[in-house]
């Protein structure tokens, strides 16, 4: 028995929202690590580890925008912000718990035998995330609003054609702001970086996102193909028309 459109629409939004939320949350947690691109690939620059999976969030944002409109994007974005806040409150609370003596003793040295305070490392790593979350929530809110708005502006300007243009264009505009804001707030306002370090890493992060947005264009088209097959041509047109009409209001 065929599933009604309302059920398929609900299932699609649930799956896309799940992908969006889990990758956004993971990016926040792992974003405290800055790694050397030179040591990894022989290219200049440093990147935050969180930036590696942000392209998944970009693609998912554009897909949600295509089928559920700006309101659909903002709805899941607000939910994500709330869940990220909850996650970091829980993480911060765990840094206040007194460590067990046997745990400290079992981890009192690193692999080379040097003295190591595992509780200090735990607190230091996860509390860095508190600055990142302030920067990320600020940048995330601005970036998602920009992304959803520019996507729909380009959609109307092109008459619904050129998926790659509205997806890539909206990402490049929103992430130009996001890449700087998140690092400025997290590591300059709440951290100990110089403005020069912020600009250097923000520049590298942005160009990585720029390249990823271009390279992931085929993935976007594949996602559209699979979703269109799942929904059916008529239902796809109906959803896209609703999304476009929603943005025009």
UniProtKB/TrEMBL annotation:
GO terms for cellular component: plasma membrane. It is a multi-pass membrane protein. The chain crosses the membrane at residues 12-35, 47-64, 76-97, 130-151, 163-190, 210-227. Pfam families: Vut_1. Its main location: membrane. InterPro entries: YhhQ. One of its GO terms (molecular function) is transmembrane transporter activity. It is found in: Cell membrane. Keywords: Cell membrane, Membrane, Transmembrane, Transmembrane helix, Transport. Involved in the import of queuosine (Q) precursors, required for Q precursor salvage. This is Probable queuosine precursor transporter. It comes from Hymenobacter swuensis DY53.
